Amino acid sequence: MDTRTMILNAAAEVFAQHGFRGSTTRRIADAASVNEVTIFRYFGSKDALLQEAISSSAGTAFAHHLPSEPVDPERELGEWCTTLVKHLHARRAMTRKVMAEMEERPEMTPCAVQAPARATHELCSYFRKLRSNGFTDEDFDEIGAATMLRGALFHDAMARDMMPDVFPKPASKAAARYAQLILRAIGVRTGQANASTPVGTKTEPPTSLDS
Questions:
Q1: What is the rounded end-to-end Cα distance, in angstroms, of the chain?
Q2: How far apart are CA 123 and CA 96, in angstroms?
Q3: What is the DSSP-derived secondary structure letter of residue 202?
Q4: Which helix (H) or strand (E) holds 206?
Q5: Which of 63, 101, 69 lies closest to 83, judged by CA?
Q6: The domain at 62-185 falls in which architecture?
């Protein structure tokens, strides 16, 4: 691992434990096994370092992408949701710190919201593809659907450890269940794949020669 990445990872870990004020360059340098001069040489200031560390950490959580052309929506969206919840849950301490600091330090907002915004746009694009490729013929609001799904995933990742009884069990399958529910809500049949027959198309029963 290169020095820059080591410092970014250390800064993310220190921030998750101590917040902005407690994330001194000395603490970050010790965690990264470098000296403070190295930190300033790479990033210039503590503010710049922490903003990049937060942005990089958030971007990693949304690194798993949906396919540009849907084939099996239940599997594809289920895997995307499951991966996202795992990443968000692993980084929940940092996310909580960022949310607690944003009112006092609004300059942290852009680096914290870039990745979720990209994820929403990706979901919207995927939902539109589901419609155009014949997986659903419902006239739904893709932004509303994306917001509902992302909100459920975020809430699960952030709050399950505090109130486990209000979330689906087992935790390992919850994200896929959220994906199934949103797919049904927008008119995609569970288990539907390849959409060779568009939704709403009637098929003739097989004749005796076909059986």
A1: 61
A2: 24
A3: -
A4: none
A5: 63
A6: Orthogonal Bundle (1.10)
Whose tokens are 């709403």? That residue is: 200
Instruction: Name, in order, each residue with C-beta under 8 angstroms of 164's C-beta and a sequence gap of 6 or more.
Output: 171
What number does CATH give the domain 3-54? 1.10.10.60
Listed in order, strand segments (DSSP E) in the chain are: none
Largest CA distance in the chain: 82
Query: What is the model's pTM?
Result: 0.81
Q: Establish whether the linkage from the previous residue to 168 is cis, with ω within 30° of 0.
A: no
Query: Using CA atoms, how far apart are residues 150 and 198, in angstroms rounded to an integer?
Result: 27
Is residue 98 within 8 Å of 54, Cβ to Cβ?
A: yes
Please give the structure tokens belonging to residue 47: 């503010």
Domain range list for the chain: 3-54, 62-185
Closest CA to 186 of 116, 112, 130, 104: 130
**Per-residue confidence in pLDDT tens, the chain, 211 aa:** 899 999 999 999 999 999 999 999 999 999 999 999 999 999 999 999 999 998 887 766 666 789 999 999 999 999 999 999 999 899 899 889 988 888 888 888 887 788 788 889 999 999 999 999 999 999 999 999 999 999 999 999 999 999 999 999 999 999 999 999 999 999 998 766 665 444 554 444 444 444 3
